[in-house]
Amino acid sequence: MILNDVHRGINKNRKRKRIGRGPGSGHGKTSGRGHKGQGSRAGSSQLVTFQGGAMPLVRRVPKRGFNNRWSLRVAVVNVGDLESSFEAGEDVTLEALAARNLARGRFDVFKVLGGGELSKKLKVSAHRFSKTAQEKIEKAGGEVVIVPGKTSVEEKKKQQSQSS
């Protein structure tokens, strides 16, 4: 293999195909739309899922359970887990939680819950805190920092009703 053959034939900036420019261009007359039919008319378009009149796969596959596309994925950790994973005086951030494998997977919001006991002074940063978690962290001499995150549809509606 010759090194300059690697990129031969690859056009990074290909020119746009100019259709409807006469018979000499090879794309004249019907401009690649064929004769008659739905696709030949101006303004015609089809759904992405259209399969030539066959029942689309989207409609053939059975739907199971409940799926709320607007709900937020909330990852949680208990105060007791922070007690065992962090030393006194440390900052508990989302990065530190991920490094200690406490914030796993994909999530929109991270919430600290009040399960377990906390005796260490920690500065905890998260999107949400339960009341008991906040009380336990502050009772141990720690600090609660609320990080701005995504808001759910219900929270947005609540904010709009309060502002108006």
Give an overview in words.
With 164 residues, this protein is of the alpha/beta class. The protein has a domain at 74-151: Ribosomal Protein L15, Chain: K, domain 2. It contains five helices and six strands. A three-stranded parallel β-sheet has the order 1-3-5.
Q: Features of this protein?
A:
164 residues; alpha/beta; Ribosomal Protein L15, Chain: K, domain 2; 3-stranded parallel beta sheet; 13% strand; elongated
Radius of gyration: 29 Å
**Largest sheet, described in full?**
3 strands, parallel
Tally of individual helices: 5
Provide mean pLDDT, rounded.
88
First-to-last CA distance: 70 Å
Tell me the fraction of residues in β-strands, as a range.
5-15%
The count of DSSP E runs of length 2 or more, i.e. the number of strands, is 6
Q: Strand order within the widest sheet? A: 1-3-5
- CATH classification class of the domain at 74-151: Alpha Beta
Q: What share of residues is helical?
A: 10-25%
Second rung of CATH, namely the architecture of the domain at 74-151 = Ribosomal Protein L15, Chain: K, domain 2
Following the backbone from N to C, one meets helices and strands in this order, namely HEHEHEEEHEH
Structural class call reads alpha/beta
